[in-house]
Amino acid sequence: MKKLNYAKNALLLIIVPFLSFYLMECFLRNPWDEKWGLKLSLLIINTVFHEIVAVILFAIIGRLRWSLRLQTISCFLFGLLEYYVQRFRGKPIVPWDITSAGTAASVANNFDYFLDMRGKLVIAGFIALLVLTQLADAKFPSIKKEKKALIPRIAVALTAFILLFPYTAFCQSTSTIKKYKIYDKLFTPTTIVWRDGIAFSMLYELQFMTVDKPAGYSEQAMKETLASYASDAESTSTEDLPNIIVIMDEAFSDPAILGDFKTNEDYMPFVHSLQNGAENAITGYMNCSVVGGNTPNTEFEYLTGNSLAFLPQGSIAYQQFVNGKIDAMPSYLKSLGYDTLGMHPYKATGWDRDRVYPLLGFDKAHFIDYFEARNPKYVRNYVSDETLFDQIINEYESRKKNSSAPFFSFNVTMQNHSEYSGELVNFEPEITVDGLGDTLITRYLSLEKITDEALKNFCDYFSKTDDKTIIVFFGDHQPTDYVVEPIWKMNGKTGSDLSFEDMTKRYKVPFVIWANYDIEEQSGIETSANYLGNLTLKTAGIPLDPYRSFTDAFSEKYPVISAIHAADANGNDASIDDTDADGSLSDYRKMQYYELFDDKDDYE
After folding, report:
1. 369 neighbors 125 (Cβ within 8 angstroms)
2. Which residues are CB-neighbours of 455 under 8 A, at least 6 positions away?
3. For residue 64, what is the enclosing H or E element?
4. Which of 189, 279, 339, 483 could lock 479 by a disulfide, CB 3.0 to 4.6 Å apart?
5. Residue 210: is its pLDDT beyond 70?
6. How confident is the model at residue 187 (pLDDT cuts 50, 70, 90)?
7. 133 and 184 together in one domain
C-alpha cells in the first residue's frame, strides 16, 4: 500500500506541474498547434523547468499538496497576465517588465477584461487541477518534532535550485538554439513565446537585460571620433532661432499603410493635406521600435538620438539606462539659451518621467495635476489633445511676456490611448468603415479625427504669430494588433502570418514638421525616431552637436534604424540582427555605448 501511495504522489509531482504549464500556455493558443504550438523538444525543455520549481516548492513548504497548489495558482495568474498583456500591448511579458509594473497598473482600469471561450475553459481546467491536488498527501517529516528533518529539505531545495543555473545556461546556449532549431528572432517577441513557451523564452531573454561593451570598443577612440564632428554650436546666437514645439501623439498612425479600406470621410484631412506638398512642411514616415505600447522608447530615441536597436529587446530605456544626466535635445537646446518644458497630461510617475525629465535637461515638467487644476476637457477618460495644445499656447504666451528666450516644448498626449472598447464617455465616433459596424478601428479613427482638427487649429494659431515657430508632430506607435486586425482581414491577411515587409509596416507612423515661416518643403521622407530629432534641429537652423553630427552622417548609409529593422541607402531592408551580422552597424553601436555609459553631460 505504501508503494502505491509513493507512486501516486510521484505521479502527481510529474503530472500536475506539466498540466499547469500546459494550461498556462493554453491562454495564448493551443500548445499542440502544428504552426504555433510547441515542438516535442521544447515541450520537454519547458516541462523540466516546471518540475524543478515543483521540487523546490515541495522542499520549502514540506507538503506536496500545498506545493502543487501554489505552483498551479502561480501558473494560472501568470498565464492570465500574459494573456491580457498580449491583448492590450500586442507583445508578451519580458523579464524587465518588472520595472514598468507601476505604469501598467496606472492605466489598467481603462481596459476591457473580456475573456474569450478558450480563456474560460482554461480557468475551468485550472480549477479541476486544483481539485486533483487534493490527492497529494506526501510530506516531509515535521521540523517541530525532529530538527534533523530540516537537513534533507534544505539539501533537496538547494540541489534543485542549483540545477536552475545550468538549465538557464542550456536555454541561452547558441548550440541549444541550433541543435533544436529553436525560434530566436528577438524582433518578434510574441512569436518567441508562442513557439518556444513562456518559461523558455523568459529564461532565454534574461541574457539581454544588460548591455555588453561592443567588440573593439575604445572610449578614447570614441572621444577622438566625436572631436572630429565638433561644430560651431557654442557660438550660435539665439536671436533668430525659432521656437520648437514637439508633439508626440499617443497611438497616432495612419492604418492605410497596412491595407486598403474605405471610410465615410477622411479621418485625418489636415495631416493628409500637409503630406500632399503643403507649403513650409516636411512630411514622411517615421519607423518606431515599438508597437501597441512602450511609449517612452520612441520618446527616448527622438530626444537622445540613440536607437533601441542597440539595447536589449524589450528594454524600457528610461527605466533601465537613464540613471544620470545624459546628452539629449532639451539639455542641448538649454545650453543654447532655450527655455525647455516637458508636458504630459497623465501621471508624473509613468515610465519614471518625473525622475527622467530633469536628467534630460527640462527646466520644468507639467503632469496631470497641473492640467486638472485648469479645468481640462476630456475625451473618454483622458485629457483631450485640444486641451494639451491650448496649454502649450498658454505656456508660450506666458513666456513671451517674461522672457525673450526661444521656447522648446516637448509634449506627450494621452487622448488616443487604448482601450477603445467599453462605454462611450465624452466621445461620439464619427468615422465609419465600409463593411464594419461600431468596432475598435472605427473608434480609433474617430479619435484621430479629433486630434487632426485640434492640430489644424493649433497650427492656425501659430500661423498668425510673429515669432518663428516650428511644430513637429508624430505618433509614438501604432495601436495593438487586435485594433487593426479588421484591415488585415479586408486585405486577406492575418496578424500571425505577415510577410517581413508587412511586419515592418506595423512600426511606421506619419510625421510632420511644419513652420510658420519659409522652410524647404519635402515629402515622402523615410526615417526613424533616432534620426527625426536631427531633422528637427537642422530644419530650425541649429548646428548639430558632435554625437548628432555623427548619427546624421551615419544616416546617409542607413536612413532607417530601429529595433525591428534597418534599411540602407540602396533600399535594402532586413531585420536588425541580419543587418548587423557582419558589423555594418558597429560604429553606431560603439558610439551609442559611449554616449550612454561612458560620456558625461556635454552641455553643462
Report:
1. no
2. 247, 270, 271, 385, 389, 473
3. helix 64-89
4. 483
5. yes
6. low
7. yes
Residue at 216 is within a domain? no
> Would you state the cell numbers that stand for residue 131, as one nine-digit string?
481539485
Residues in the chain: 604
Residues 428, 331 share a domain: yes
Could you tell me if 252 and 199 lie in one domain?
Answer: no
Q: How far is CA 206 from CA 199, 486, 553, in A?
A: 11, 35, 34
Q: pLDDT tens across 144-155, in order?
A: 666 677 888 888
Residue 284, strand partner residues: 511, 525
* 261 and 142 assigned to the same domain: no
**Whole-model pTM?**
0.75
Q: Give the separation between CA 353 and CA 296, rounded to whole angstroms.
A: 9
Widest distance between CA atoms in the chain? 94
Q: Which residues are 526's β-sheet partners? A: 285
- Nearest 5°: the CA angle 513, 516, 519 is 60
DSSP 8-class letter at 211: P
- 3-state DSSP call for residue 31? coil
Long-range Cβ pairs for the range 42-48 (8 Å, 24+): 42/180, 42/182, 42/195, 42/196, 42/197, 42/200, 43/197, 45/170, 45/171, 45/180, 45/197, 45/200, 46/21, 46/197, 46/198, 46/199, 46/200, 47/17, 47/18, 47/21, 48/167
Same domain? For 416 and 360 the reply is yes
- Do 372 and 482 sit in the same domain of this protein? yes
Count how many Cα atoms sit within 13 Å of the Cα of residue 378 in the half-sphere of its side chain: 10
pLDDT category of residue 414 using cuts at 50, 70 and 90: very high
Give the amino acid at 320.
Q
Least confident residue range of 32-36, 66-70, 135-139, 527-531:
32-36
Strand partners, 244: 408, 470
CA dist 300 and 93 (Å) reads 21
Cis bond before residue 419 (omega within 30° of 0): yes
26 found inside a domain: yes
CA angle (69, 71, 77) in 5-degree steps: 100
- Residue 326 has phi, psi (to 5 degrees) of -130, 160
Residues 447-496: pLDDT tens digits?
999 999 999 999 999 999 999 999 999 999 999 888 999 999 999 888 77
Q: Is 316 a residue whose pLDDT tops 60?
A: yes
Q: Which of 208, 235, 264 is the last residue of a domain?
A: 208
Which of 394, 426, 425 is closest to 411 using CA atoms? 394
Same domain for 437 and 499? yes
CATH number for position 282: 3.40.720.10
At residue 141, the pLDDT reads 78
Q: Is the pLDDT reported for residue 108 higher than 60?
A: no
Taking a C-beta distance cutoff of 8 angstroms, is the pair 252, 576 a contact?
no
Which residue segment(s) compose the domain that 553 sits in? 247-287+310-522+534-598
Is 164 contained in some domain?
A: yes
Backbone angles phi, psi at 572, to 5 degrees: -75, 130
Give the whole-angstrom CA distance, residue 173 versus residue 210. 17
What are the cell numbers at 6?
A: 509513493
Helix axes 64-89, 2-26, angle to 10 degrees: 10
Domain membership flag for residue 302: no
pLDDT by residue (tens digit) across 154-175?
888 898 889 999 998 999 888 9
Pick the last residue of a domain from 190, 208, 226.
208
Mark whether 185 and 117 lie in a shared domain.
yes
